[in-house]
Amino acid sequence: MNKKGCRTHDSPSFVYPRQENMQQPNTMNYNVDKNGYYGRFGGAYIPEILHANVENLKREYLRIIDDPAFQKEFRDLLADYVGRPSPLTFAPRMSKRYGTKIYLKREDLNHTGAHKINNTIGQILLARRMGKTRIIAETGAGQHGVATATVCALTGMRCIVYMGATDVERQHLNVQKMQMLGAEVRPVRSGNMTLKDATNEAIRDWCCHPADTHYIIGSTVGPHPYPDMVARFQSVISEEIKKQLQAKEGRDWPDYLIACVGGGSNAAGTFYHYLNDTRVKLIAAEAAGLGIDTGHSAATIHLGREGIIHGARTLVMQTPDGQITEPYSISAGLDYPGIGPVHANLAETRRAEIRAVTDDEALKAAFELTALEGIIPALESAHALAVFGQKKFKPEDVVVLTVSGRGDKDMETYVKHFNRADHE
């Protein structure tokens, strides 16, 4: 039992099991294929009513986003509105503590406080070029919802955000931000009232309004082309890492990249330009909750089996008869019972090392970064930071970790934990 009275695994640190028949990393191309698959994961499994919408998006998205006029508008907004490039910050005290060279990719310093804005700007420009007038989105921690509401305010689009009632309560500051930005926030009271359920309701809405509505999915999940499209918009992260490392280290590649994964958008952006560079080791940290064997976990890659969720074939937390199980994490942005197909493939092929991080490990890592570097991370990012407590790195290693968001939205959780620690 832990101090909260909850059962935990004897050893809270887990690594995704490796099977002998998995393909070796250097034999693979890890980008999406022409049919929307990463290995055997991906595809588009959608209701008939959405078929025309998704097919049109598949036909048009590459043509539109590769257009020089689109790229100029996208890049100008990233620079002048978001504030990119985000810094690559050397963390001297963390580096000393863990005996390696640690850099932090500071997505927490973006406008709206997280990496999510990279994708929402890209998708709102795409939607406008496709003649859409109404935007819907799902959100868990609220960062994607805020980013979507922000770009809708910027472009004058109607915005509806679906959010689980549980998350509305624990992330009420972000709800207030969305409302101030002009979005309609619709609480979802079905299921566990978290991210999965918000996504279900957003898809139902899309089915009812297919002609005028664009669904801005916030992560590398959903039917093709969404996982690829979101990864492309987020790839600005790894594009900048290459340039920034060249300036700081005299080489454009690190030894390790670390990012948290829920659906996997910040990890996809962090890994994107290094997927096929096997000099670079990839580490993804997922939420183990109270422990992967406790029944209170969101460690999808560790616990999931192949299935279909929200339009894609991927790893899914499910019962033996295929019913999706409810995930749990202290982090509202990581409690999703699926995973982006790109990450399912990276795990299965052993291209990425998957670490499961408990609530307590994440909280400890958040307080550590705050104390050592003066940076308060989002709880999602804290899961990535906890990898340093699980894995030993060499003194000569260059390790880049993406701080996907800032901790403003999680202050109530942090304060409760801090006050509890003071009285124990």
Give a quick rundown of the structure.
The protein is α/β, with parallel strands linked by helices and 424 residues long. Helices cover 41% and strands 17% of the residues. The chain has 2 domains: 241 residues, 3-Layer(aba) Sandwich (Rossmann fold); 151 residues, Rossmann fold (3-Layer(aba) Sandwich).
Textual characterization of the structure:
The protein is α/β, with parallel strands linked by helices and 424 residues long. It has 2 domains: 14-35 and 83-113 and 235-422, 3-Layer(aba) Sandwich (Rossmann fold), CATH 3.40.50.1100; 41-78 and 116-228, Rossmann fold (3-Layer(aba) Sandwich). Helices cover 41% and strands 17% of the residues. The protein is built from 17 helices and 15 strands. A 7-stranded mixed sheet has the order 1-14-11-10-15-5-4, sandwiched between helices. Helix 11 links the parallel strand 10 and strand 11. It is globular and about 55 Å long. The two termini are 15 Å apart. Belongs to the TrpB family.
